[in-house]
Amino acid sequence: MSSEDWTAWIGRTEVVEDDICLAQALAAAATLEPLSSPTASAALPPLWHWFYFLPRAPQSKLGIDGHPQRGGFIPPIPYPRRMFAGARIRFHHPLLIGQPARREGIIRNITQKSGRTGPLAFVTVGYQIFQNEMLCIEEEQDIVYREPGAPVPAPVPVELPPVSDAITRTVTPDTRLLFRFSALTFNAHRIHYDRPYAQQEEGYPGLVVHGPLVAVLLMELARHNTTRPITGFSFRSQAPIFDLAPFRLVARFGDNRVELEAQGPDGATALSASAELGSD
Ligand SMILES: C/C(=C\C(=O)SCCNC(=O)CCNC(=O)[C@H](O)C(C)(C)COP(=O)(O)OP(=O)(O)OC[C@H]1O[C@@H](n2cnc3c(N)ncnc32)[C@H](O)[C@@H]1OP(=O)(O)O)C(=O)O
């Protein structure tokens, strides 16, 4: 299939309705252990909308990697390795727990690039989330597809130097955490829970930590250390994190934004992010 055939997907839309139910927020809270538990009618914490509007592809329509087969909403890119590359989000109004909401999606762009790992195809998906006909959240996600390429080496752990001007947290990405995040997002991608598949088929040294999980953990670190609302968030996944060693979250507060970073066990930036702070 030629790239012209994929670009025919630009402009394709999808609408998903869901209830922002308390049960799912409580499951997220059990996983993430925020400072306070969600309650009925309360505002859903920022980024927790990822635990709703879950993929509903029937089992028989899943691809070998566990994702819904391409060619529906997502274009039929032939490169087999899918990864979450990044996202940009604006929070206009918090979603309220206990009320229905609607997510409207559109394929905004498909870009082919040449990377160090080989050819890459980036699919940019735009989302708008409405509750009571009010636009609450706008988001753009970048999903990347790549060719199999060479096996990915495990990062060599080093002792990370202490940081004095930032808030940090060390996370041990064990299989229980990865399983729960896959379950919360109903994400059947096998790189996150099927070790033989991740290693032998996709060439990773271990299970891959979900990019959105790292982003949510950074958001939790930011929001628990300010009283100001978070009005925007963006992140870019630069290198995979595996379940082989702990990784470190770093948050540096500025006047109106928080610069965030997840450092792999080798000390390199695996994911960089930025959160915008509104007024109290
Ligand atoms: C959920 C879920 C899946 C996951 O959660 S997977 C785990 C989270 N994601 C990752 O771990 C991805 C980590 N990133 C990478 O492995 C590499 O960055 C990637 C995407 C394979 C690309 O590496 P390359 O070395 O091949 O690319 P280059 O650095 O040479 O760059 C080539 C051009 O691509 C642009 N680019 C690279 N990375 C990104 C990015 N994250 N976002 C946007 N654009 C990116 C880069 O700027 C270069 O562009 P030029 O215009 O300058 O050529 C699930 O599946 O649902």
TrEMBL record:
Q: Which SUPFAM superfamilies match?
A: Thioesterase/thiol ester dehydrase-isomerase (SSF54637)
Upper taxonomic lineage = Bacteria, Bacillati, Chloroflexota, Chloroflexia, Chloroflexales
Protein name per its UniProtKB record: Acyl-CoA dehydrogenase
Q: Organism source for this protein?
A: Chloroflexus islandicus
Record's InterPro entries? HotDog_dom_sf, Mitochondrial_HTD2
Task: Give the residue range of the signal peptide.
Answer: none
Please name the GO terms that the record assigns under molecular function. Answer: (3R)-hydroxyacyl-[acyl-carrier-protein] dehydratase activity
